[in-house]
């Protein structure tokens, strides 16, 4: 499922997107949520955004199992507007966890990087065989 891939990817971002530096003499462990706390809040937002996109693509009459990558990307792009609310929630949640601007960077980078392959796998799994 997409959550396993995104969870692994998000663990990398705990280190790479960390933007807060603790004040002198203060322990970072006491001032920021733990990795588990961040994941507990971020993963549901990722799941809701991904599920919204998967539903839109699965319902799109243009979707078929043999789509080329460019065609999948077109379907993803077309679904983004109707999934604006869960995507906005994802961005805002990420910004709270990792700092201002990190949510948009996550959405436009790692999230959209893994989305096409996740869409193909998940929509195929959800679509009954003919």
What do these coordinates show?
This protein has one domain (34-125). 74% of the residues lie in helices and 0% in strands. It has helices spanning 2-16, 28-31, 35-59, 69-80, 84-98, 102-126. The longest helix has 25 residues, at 35-59. The model is unreliable at 11-19 (pLDDT under 50).
* SS summary, helix count: 6
Q: Could you tell me the mean pLDDT?
A: 80
Sheet with the most strands, sense and barrel status:
none
Number of domains: 1
User: Shape from CA axes?
Assistant: elongated
Task: Sketch the topology as an H/E string, one letter per element.
Answer: HHHHHH
Helical fraction equals: over 70%
Brief account:
Helices cover 74% and strands 0% of the residues. It has 130 residues and is mostly helical.
List the helices and strands and how they pair.
Elements: H1 2-16, H2 28-31, H3 35-59, H4 69-80, H5 84-98, H6 102-126
Helix pairs in contact: 1-3, 1-6, 3-4, 3-5, 3-6, 4-6, 5-6
């Amino acid at each position: 499922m997409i959550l396993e891939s995104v969870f692994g990817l998000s663990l990398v971002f705990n280190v790479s997107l960390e933007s807060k530096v603790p004040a002198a003499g203060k322990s970072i462990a006491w001032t920021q949520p733990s990795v588990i706390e961040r994941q507990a809040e971020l993963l549901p937002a990722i799941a809701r955004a991904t599920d919204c996109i998967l539903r839109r693509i699965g319902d799109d009459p243009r979707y078929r199992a043999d789509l080329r990558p460019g065609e999948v990307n077109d379907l993803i792009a077309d679904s983004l507007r109707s999934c604006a609310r869960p995507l906005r929630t994802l961005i805002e949640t990420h910004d709270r966890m990792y700092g201002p601007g990190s949510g948009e960077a996550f959405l436009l980078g790692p999230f959209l990087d893994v989305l096409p392959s996740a869409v193909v796998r998940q929509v195929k799994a959800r679509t009954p065989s003919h």
